[in-house]
Known about the structure:
single chain; six-stranded mixed beta sheet; two-stranded antiparallel sheet; 5 helices; globular
Amino acid sequence: MAIEKVKKYFAELGEPERVIEFEESTATSELAAQALGCEVGRIAKSISLMVDGRPILILISGDMKVDNKKFKARFGTRPKMLAFNDVERLIGHAVGGTCPFAVNEGVAIYLDDSLKRFDVLYPAAGNDRSCARLALDELEKYINVAGRVDVAKPK
Length: 155
């Protein structure tokens, strides 16, 4: 189970308390914000895309969506979402729990500038009933960031 991979990942980093589990679903930004009692923008949703035949993740604020024009300017191609059935195989986590922790080797992870607005962020933690609580600098510390991007626009 992917959440166990994430728990192990944080335990190995000496941060086992980072994973928060819920009774209710946190599968969408809105549900996660509701479970946490916070604004939707604090949810760092993981967008699974394919660029040049390789899977990537872009962490973007929960109140934003990918701007096709900005994405094409940055990556040289239109955004192509991974098919629902391919996300777990290519990224290492199923839809609803896709997160930047303990991902498959070769998955590039980008942080969108929309996340900079918040002191605390909540990315998923491996399943549809979990998250982690991190500041942006902590998030960068705990994942292998391929770069920062500005590819978001308001929903």
